[in-house]
Amino acid sequence: MRWNARDGLLVMLACLGVGVISAWPWLVQPSLRPGVPAPFEIRAPQDASVVDSEALAQRRSQLGPRIQVQITDKDATRQLQQRLKRLLNELITSSEGQEARLRPISLTPEEEAFLITLSQQGEQQWPLAVERAQSRMLAQGVVSTLAEGQLLQASWQQLDDMPEPGRSLGAKLITRSLQGSTNLRTDNGLTQVLLNDLIQQNGVPKIEVQAGEVITVKGEVISQRAYDVLDSFGLISRSPATGLFLVRWIEASIGAGLMLMICRRWKTDLNVPQALLLLGTLAAVQGCKLWFGASVSALAVLVPPSLLLAEGLGSACGLSWLALATLLWPIPLNNIGTARLLVAGGVAVVGVLLAGRQRSRAETLQSAVLLTVAALLVEAALIQIMGGAVGGELLSEGVLMGGLLLLGLLLAPMVEKVFGMITRSRLLELCDLQRPLLRRLSSEAPGTFEHTLMICGLAEEGVRAIGGDVDLIRTGALYHDVGKLHAPQWFIENQSGDNPHDHLDDPWRSAEILQAHVDEGLKMARRYGLPAPVADFIPEHQGTLRMGYFLHRAREQNPNASDRPFRYRGPRPQSKETAVLMLADGCEAALRSMPPETSEEQACDSVRRIIHARRHDGQLDDSGLGPVEIELLVRGFVQVWKRMRHRRIPYPIPARKAFSA
Predict the structure, then answer these.
(1) CB 187 within 8 A of CB 71
(2) What average pLDDT is seen over the chain?
(3) Cis ω before 571 (30° cut-off from 0)
């Protein structure tokens, strides 16, 4: 399958994107950081006293919840003041008129009399005095958890210059407006200043380092204490390593391009969405490596993607993806880390090789479980041999790997549909002759169904001879003529009497009917959810061939008739498998019509002439079939023909007994 310029540009940009993600640490992250294995051994150049940031952070976390600096919030204060004004307004309004009205607080008889006998001047002075008392309390700050009695007492104290019963009534209103509310908020800046002052008073924790002391050992994870010491000596570079970034970016981008070239070498029909799937999966894995750092699980990020990619795109694609994902490991590893990476790579290789042989989803599920158990056992044994400790981390890694494998199996059908992939198990499911579309073909177009079974035998033998995908061509051959279901009587293999084309007597219309079986076949493929690689057999098995019989009849009526209306619209075969089906379709009738005395050499010559005619017409130009493979096809087709024409022993038929009347 050829890619146009736009497809090539899109894939190239995706390769460059993978390179950027792979080289990102050298652009934005320090050269050394906590949690990453040290690339080499480092010793202290001199004596030093270094602030222990880890201990300092622990001390801050211990003091932080207990120390908070709060200040008054202007918005909260304004809301509480407005609440008091509303209560005052409701209280004064409720005392006017003859009818009793609902009041915001309960009143004593003296307080009720106070409200009734208040003069107009008193109504202006008393509310203002109550509001000023509340403002003084809010300026000091009010907490929401203060008990009602304490709040009432504080309000009473603020109104000490007011006579009774106005004093008690004002205290009740202030308490009602402030209860359960606060006008304080925490100020983080002032809190940090106070924390720093307290820490300075107690002494800042420090690390004492002597000259020549080993700070980091090659392969061991850099601790926060070691990082603090390295930083104090100026050994941590925070400036972008532009040179290293460019080198890593170019390496990863070229590696991604080479991976796609290898995949296209072994899977010639690799399309752009599938290439983007390979690159997108690689980018996601690279992102996981950078996000999780040294804690990333090699088993979890290498085994599930490579296994599932091999299921859909073939073992060669899975192995090439695995090789690049392993080589682009961005983190320095110690001895145990290297061993675990090798174990993950080995398990992934076994999984990819098994994926090419699995013929059902049940086998894939079984392989996922066995690979997980085997990986854990091998990794545990290696860790013990190298003197490490086997703990719960290994079990967690196994659970994660197994879970990702199961998730991938659940999502596989959706991924197959979106990216046009097809697995071996899906092909075998589609080959079931009890599937609805094949059942329709056998009952509504029995002649076409028998022709299909014959083509299957020829095509399988031919693809097997050239080392192609036998399961794919078997499935494609079963569905290549389903479009004839729209009008089976117009095709000779389904006719038992008159030919409708003779009554039509219009070769141009007959050519349209033949083309319609391709168009209708594609519609049925979409309706029944056939995968794209299987649906491709419907138009490509006819390519742009001439409808020779009807072209001949048209030129009998008009010698200058163009052959364009009498050619199928294509496309021509884009893969070896669809090309083999075209050739098998063309040779089937010729092989079946050969007389019994035909020799093997004559049969080969006849098949060879048909194939060369297709090749001369340009039908095989995009298929990738070479001269050697064509000769192997000839031999394979003739082998099927020899099996078809085997002789049987003539059995004597006993004469029927006659009975007299």
Answers:
(1) yes
(2) 83
(3) yes
pLDDT at residue 481, rounded to an integer: 93
Q: Residue 209 carries which side chain, given as an amino acid letter?
A: V
Q: What is the 3-state secondary structure (H, E, C) of 173-219?
A: HHHHHHCCCCCEEECHHHHHHHHHHHHHHHCCCEEEECCCCEEECCC
Which helix H or strand E contains 50, and what residues bound it? strand 48-51
The Cα 246–Cα 224 span in angstroms is 29
**First vs last C-alpha separation in the chain:** 77
Nearest to 118 by CA among 180, 52, 176, 162: 162
3-state DSSP assignment of residue 52: coil
Question: Angle at Cα 279 formed by Cα 406 and Cα 534, nearest 5°?
Answer: 70
- Give the CB-side neighbour count of residue 423, counting CA atoms within 13 A: 28
| Under 8 Å between Cβ of 336 and 388 | yes
- Find out whether 282 and 18 touch, Cβ atoms under 8 Å: yes
- In order of their start, the domains of the chain are 5-26+240-422 (no CATH), 70-186 (no CATH), 431-644 (1.10.3210)
For residue 630, count other CB atoms closer than 10 A to its CB.
Answer: 21
CA dihedral 533, 535, 541, 543 (to 10 degrees): -100
**In 3-state terms, what secondary structure has residue 222?**
coil
Angle at 293 between CA 290 and CA 296, to 5 degrees: 100
In eight-state DSSP terms, residue 70 is E
Assessment of whether the complete model's pTM goes beyond 0.85: no
CB atoms within 10 A of CB 515: 19
> Distance between CA atoms of 194 and 201, rounded to whole angstroms?
11
Task: Report in angstroms the alpha-carbon separations of 116 from 85, 99, 167, 170, 201.
Answer: 19, 13, 16, 15, 61
What's the CA gap between 448 and 485, in Å, rounded? Answer: 9
CB-based contact 260:278 (threshold 8 Å): yes
CB 421 within 8 A of CB 313: yes
CA distance 533 to 285: 28
The per-residue DSSP string of 464-505 comes to HHHT--HHHHHHHHHHTTGGGGGSGGGSGGG-SS--HHHHH-
Q: Which of 287-296, 309-318, 357-366, 637-646 has the highest mean pLDDT?
A: 309-318
Q: Residue 51 belongs to what H/E stretch? A: strand 48-51
Query: How far is 322 from 357, CA to CA, in rounded Å?
Result: 18
Tokens of 66: 């207990």
Exposed / middle / buried, residue 285 (Cβ in 10 Å: 0-12, 13-18, 19+): buried
37: DSSP letter: B
Residue 428's region, left for phi above 0, alpha for psi from -120 to 50, else beta, is alpha
The structure tokens 């300092």 sit at: 56
Parallel, antiparallel or unpaired: strands 214-216 and 206-209: unpaired
Instruction: Look at residue 67 and tell me whether its pLDDT is greater than 50.
Output: yes
**Count of alpha carbons within 13 angstroms of residue 489, beta-carbon side:** 8
pLDDT at 661 over 50: no
Measured in whole angstroms, the distance separating CA 634 from the mean position of its chain's CA atoms is 44
Q: Are 618 and 576 in contact (CB under 8 A)?
A: no
Per DSSP, the residues of 285-331 read: HHHHHHHHGGG--HHHHHHHHHHHHHHHH-HHHHHHHHHHHHHT--S
Rg of the chain (C-alpha set): 43
The C-alpha angle 142, 146, 147, rounded to 5 degrees, equals: 145
Q: For residue 591, which phi and psi values (nearest 5 degrees)?
A: -70, -40
- More confident site: 187 or 294: 187
8 Å CB contact between 342 and 443: no
* Backbone dihedral angles phi then psi of residue 181, each to the nearest 5 degrees: -125, 160
Closest CA to 563 of 575, 579, 552: 552
